[in-house]
Amino acid sequence: MTMTRADMLLKLYDETVKQLHNGVHFIKEKDMASADKCLQKAQNILQYLSSTLDRKYPISNNLASLYRFFKDQIMAASIHRDTKPLESITPMISELRDAFAQADKQLRMEQQPQHSSEMI
């Protein structure tokens, strides 16, 4: 309950990346039932992220397109039992996560009260 919206967003990205890594592992191990579980979890997170976008901002449409692309790649990996689509999108999702983390850090720094060294 003490997580900020930004903290929650970062956790969701982290979990998506984790599930994609696990999916790659299970596909390589030929454990398709476990791979499918992991990939479904990743798709569910991306669907949730897409559904929570505020569409009044232009960047939201860009993010929705990205999330759709990621879900399509996950679907392709699942259907073809191929790790390449997962290996191509995982760094993109990590970079997106890092960009949000940096933006949140910058916003928090800007919102901190400025302490004056001058005495009144």
- Number of alpha- plus pi-helical segments: 4
Helices and strands, in N-to-C order?
HHHH
Distance N terminus to C terminus? Answer: 40 Å
Extract low-pLDDT stretches: none
Structural class: mainly alpha
Please identify the oligomeric state: single chain
Q: Which band does the percent of strand residues land in? A: under 5%
Radius of gyration: 18 Å
Major sheet characteristics? none
Helix content: over 70%
So what's the overall shape? elongated
Q: Quick one: how many beta strands?
A: 0
Mean of the pLDDT scores? Answer: 93
Could you characterize the architecture of this molecule?
By secondary structure, the chain is mainly alpha-helical. 79% of the residues lie in helices and 0% in strands. It has four helices and no strands. It has helices at 5-28, 32-51, 58-80, 84-111. The protein is elongated. The mean pLDDT is 93.
Question: Main attributes?
Answer:
single chain, 120 residues, 0% strand
List strands and helices in order, with pairings.
Elements: H1 5-28, H2 32-51, H3 58-80, H4 84-111
Helix pairs in contact: 1-2, 1-4, 2-3, 3-4
Quick take:
79% of the residues lie in helices and 0% in strands. The protein is built from 4 helices and no strands.
